[in-house]
Amino acid sequence: MAKHDKHPDGAVGAPPKMKQKEYQHELRRLHGELVAMQEWIKASGAKLCIVFEGRDTAGKGGTIKAITERVSPRVFRVVALPAPSSREKSQMYVQRYIPHLPAAGEVVIFDRSWYNRAGVERVMDFCSEEQAKRFLEQVPAVEKAMVDSGILLIKYWLEVSADEQTRRLESRIDDPRKTWKLSDMDLASYTKWDAYSTARDEMFAASDTAWAPWWVAHSDDKKRARLNVITHLLEHVPYEAPKRKKVELPERKIHTPSHAAGLSVREIPARF
Asked: Which of 126, 165, 203, 237 reaches 20 to 30 Å from 245, CA-CA?
């Protein structure tokens, strides 16, 4: 594994939970850097692919939202594929992911990826053990081809503790904002903590390479995890902030059309 300081199952000596005010202050600064990175990617034609994997409730979606909140959806694209169709199941396994890889001037973020085969598919018996092992044998070469084509590939694993995962799943049961996040699959996966740990470790052993290493972020504190991931991402993309020209709004004159006063429109009720 790529210079991980500790085993992914446990963060040692974790600091206290970050306060919202401090979090927003740091996030605002990092958002400015993400915009600078975006402009460099557009200008240079760089191709950036970011993979997010991790246990259920580890905070992948929230981290991705923190990254994309202030950048252009024309540059940053999030890919979260549904379960494969019967046709896709007959294809080479990684085939359905290939069309989503970035072209010049694009950033693609995978919210779960081809590593489903090494994780949920393997643990939940959606694929055979032979298929999982074949994937682990082949994926380093596939990712080497991506990198050789000019794609900057960065892979993150978000790790949450067993106790925190339980707390987060319980919080979804009665919260109408979160019930959609609690699926039958989540409940079935919850009982297989050790199996997921084994699958994760074997995945790291097989696919942590010099050209596409894994990076682990501990996410019991979601705010710190988001800031740590964004900071790490910025450190691993060789962007340069572009020089901005001074901008001033031009003068404008507004001539209200004579028919505007009598125009009938439908307005939504102002309830707030």
From this structure: 237
